[in-house]
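Dear H.,

Thanks for agreeing to be a second pair of eyes. The structure we're designing against is below in token form, covering all 374 positions.
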């Protein structure tokens, strides 16, 4: 029943907003760096995995979300198979400026600012949740790539000491990422974790291939990078964020990122240390939640870093490549490490890669028959 779904979304949003607003401006590290490890969690780059010389300091403060979280039982969040909570928003077609002439990361190909023309399309109002992904898995007996490979990348600080002690390798460019056996969407922080109380959180440890399978089953598809950026900008021209250029207007957080010293401690000043429910924080001008922050989102495009400055209509990225584009940054981003929670920012991973800060949302040319217009 769409009404029931809509009420559920409003309820999530209301609860989350109460917790997330009225926080102080975050203090951001000023370190200038470009290798935050955003793109380091790739399966097909085995040279990026190195042996850990010595066990890390066991006194490292665990930055797991220890704040009280909203409790939602599975039963509350699982609806009939005929029901789909994943509402979509109509994104108006037209011209907009994609990219920026003031790139933070030149190597990422954030530039140049160029005019793009996009047809009207539909975008999921929020990141795909665990509840939604579970319905897909149950209906199709689907196994994610992380489950087939047997592991996925998890932030070290989120692991229990027991799991951490079993790990011998780390990502060379970003040693806070550990390949963890048994980490997958049901066990996002390793085999001794679960999602029972986080069914309204974004699904993570899903590869691009998993995301495509889900969207296809939902009679949807992944957005192109241009569509994603159009949706992120929500009609605002040449702004850093969906809402403007100030990250915390009126001292209110609009996105879930990291506060504190990365990767040691996430103070959760924005209300969340770790991932948050998919309808937390105010939506952007198009009604889309968490386009920036919370989890990175896969797009359909192959990665490329040079772009034509000329007007393009419905661009679809490179014809082929090794990596797919992901957008929006995640709860692990800070200004000093991975200042990529900006609409123009981008990063990449191989299509079979997965990590604890990488999810997705779907797009569609037409509203699927089972959804009603918001
Ligand atoms: Ca946060
Ligand atoms: Ca996001």
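And this is the sequence the design step returned. I haven't edited it by hand at all.
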């Amino acid at each position: 029943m769409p009404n029931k779904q809509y009420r559920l979304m409003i309820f999530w949003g209301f609860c989350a907003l109460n917790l997330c607003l009225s926080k102080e401006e975050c203090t951001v590290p000023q370190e200038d760096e470009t290798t935050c490890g955003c793109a380091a969690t790739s399966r097909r780059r085995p040279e990026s995995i190195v042996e850990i010389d010595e066990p890390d300091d066991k006194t490292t403060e665990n930055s797991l979300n220890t704040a009280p979280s909203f409790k939602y039982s599975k039963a509350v969040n699982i609806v009939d198979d005929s029901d789909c909570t994943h509402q979509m928003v109509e994104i108006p077609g037209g011209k907009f400026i994609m990219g920026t002439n003031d790139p933070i990361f030149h190597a990422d190909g954030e530039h140049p600012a160029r005019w793009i023309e996009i047809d009207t399309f539909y975008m999921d109002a929020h990141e795909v949740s665990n509840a939604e992904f579970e319905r897909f898995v149950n209906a199709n007996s689907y196994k994610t790539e992380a489950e087939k490979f047997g592991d996925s990348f998890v932030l070290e600080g989120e692991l229990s000491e027991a799991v951490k002690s079993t790990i011998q390798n780390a990502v060379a460019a970003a040693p806070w990422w550990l390949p963890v056996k048994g980490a997958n969407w049901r066990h996002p922080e390793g085999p001794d974790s679960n999602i029972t109380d986080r069914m309204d959180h974004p699904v993570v440890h899903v590869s691009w291939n998993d995301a495509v399978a889900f969207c296809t089953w939902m009679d949807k598809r992944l957005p192109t990078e241009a569509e994603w950026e159009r949706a992120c900008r929500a009609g605002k021209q040449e702004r850093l964020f969906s809402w403007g250029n100030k990250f915390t207007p009126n001292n209110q957080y609009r996105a879930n990122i990291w506060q504190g010293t990365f990767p040691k401690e996430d103070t959760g000043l924005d209300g969340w240390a770790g991932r948050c429910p998919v309808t937390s924080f105010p939506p952007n001008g198009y009604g889309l939640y968490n386009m920036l922050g919370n989890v990175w989102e896969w797009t359909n495009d192959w990665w490329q870093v040079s772009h034509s400055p000329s007007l393009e209509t419905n661009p679809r990225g490179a014809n082929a490549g090794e990596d797919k584009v992901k957008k929006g940054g995640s709860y692990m981003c800070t200004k000093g490490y991975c200042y990529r929670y900006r609409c123009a920012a981008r990063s990449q991973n191989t299509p079979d890669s997965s990590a604890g800060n990488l999810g997705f949302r779907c797009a569609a040319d037409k509203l699927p028959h089972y959804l009603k217009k918001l």
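Two observations from my side: Residues 127, 290-291, 293-295, 297, 328 surround calcium ion (ligand 2) (CB under 6 Å). The radius of gyration is 19 Å.

Warmly,
E.
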